[in-house]
Amino acid sequence: MSKLMTTIGQDVNQPAGIPEVFTINDVVDRGLCVGCGACAVVDSNVKLTRNQYGSMVAAIDANILPGSIADRVCPFSDNSLNEDVVGERVFASCENFDQRTGYYTNLYYGRRFTEAELLKSSSGGLTSYVAIELLKRHHVDGIIHVGRDQSDDRDALFKFMVSYTEEDANACKKSQYYSLSFDEVVRSIRGDGKRYVFVGVPCFVKSLRNICLNDAVLNEQIPFMLGLVCGHLKSSRFAELLAWQLSVPPEKIQSVDFRVKNNASTVNSYDFQVVDSNQQAHAKTSNTMLGGNWGHAAFQLQACDYCDDIFAETADAVFGDAWLPQFSTWWQGTNIVLVRNPIIDDILESGKNAGAITLGGVSIDDLCKSQLGNFRHRKDGLIVRLDDDLKQGKKVPKKRVDLSALGKIDQKRKKIVRLRKEMAVKSHEYFLQAREKHDLSLYMKPMGQLARNMLKLYRDPFMKRLINRLKRYF
Question: Per-residue DSSP letters for 121-137?
């Protein structure tokens, strides 16, 4: 029997209660474009631009018809192959399958062996380790990933780029919470005779995988895709907000580092650092600043409210933070890794045997426990958001959740889901006003109130301490 099955036992593309086909036109019209750039790779008439909120979005016209190639590669269109279908086509030879994660061969926890390497990484450093090993072993000629844009005429702090050497790849480590598109770099390498590994978040991997399934040239050129467990994507304004709270306004930002490790903190309490135009560095622990709490969804892209892929189910391997009790005191960081490709298994096992990395096994349940918040957002939360949209007469994409399970979600969780969505939307609007008026308080005051409303929904002592801390600022 096929492993493709939704929670409601229907065809993977036909969840109950959502009869209409949601196309790329609907994605753009409803503001759910994630800005990946896949449509622009396959259709030269599509252009990607950064909107007033700092998010990359596609500009499409009436020539983009339902069922067209651009529609079939859009990660939030019903006409693109979903994660279940792609997974079965690409990874059916994998011996393991779980509805929560998709296919897999092996599950690990691990980290770079040396502290110096760990401190240069966001977590355990295994994403860059595997990508560089693919390069060193000549499986690929280059790595497509995100790095700092250091050009004189840049209009963003980061961009997708290609690293052809280990040195260049090491300069592009760490997670960058910043809205970007990959269309330019993918178009630039197509047909150049070289092979690449792509590193990106789940929806970007899915869209690129759909491109490759429709493009024999790119399918040959991009034999490996590495996924990153993603809570949600941020617009470019997230960096600006944190920097502004450190007295560095948007126009004075030279560079930022979203994850500076702090040996006085736990693994999930890292610092944000900004370097201003005078080359002065400013830093503060992210979760002590308004917007630094990931659960508040500041500058979250709307598309992320309609994503149900936690473990990058279309990637050859996926890497995330090991948010588990047994690793909480290891402030240097630890990865959880799910692998679907035997070459990557071999790279990890060989690295362990050579003493380059620490590596151990982890159960499927512990792997999933490391992302409990992500499951709440992308499963229970998604059910609430879809149901709310349908009741308001909105057209929505088909997702792999059971809408009839709404009654099993308690009222407190529903309130949290709805307030979180409101906070995401309002963060864009309030910051636009603050930016236009050059007055950060136009963001801080109303968002501070929403943050306090969110914290009041929780009753544990830790949250109460956060409420008291917020009161000191507002």
Answer: SSSSSHHHHHHHHHHHT
Q: Which amino acid is at 91?
A: F
DSSP string, 420-440: HHHHHHHHHHHHHHHHHHT-T
The DSSP annotation for 337-393 comes to EEE--HHHHHHHHHHHHTTSEEEEE--HHHHHHTTHHHHIIIIIHHHHHHHHHHHTT
Residue 43: what residue type? D
Q: Could you list the pLDDT tens digit for every one of the 474 residues in the chain?
A: 334 333 322 333 444 445 589 999 999 999 999 999 999 999 999 999 999 999 999 998 766 888 899 999 999 999 999 999 999 999 999 999 999 999 999 999 999 998 888 888 888 899 999 999 999 999 999 999 999 998 888 899 999 999 999 999 999 998 999 999 999 999 999 999 999 999 999 999 999 999 999 999 999 999 999 999 999 999 999 999 999 999 999 999 999 999 998 887 777 788 999 999 999 999 999 999 999 999 999 999 999 999 999 999 999 999 999 989 999 888 888 999 999 999 999 999 999 999 999 999 999 999 999 999 999 999 999 999 999 999 999 999 999 999 999 999 999 999 999 999 999 999 999 999 999 999 999 999 999 999 999 999 986 555 555 556 555 554
- pTM flag (> 0.85): yes
| Tokens coding 276 | 């201003």
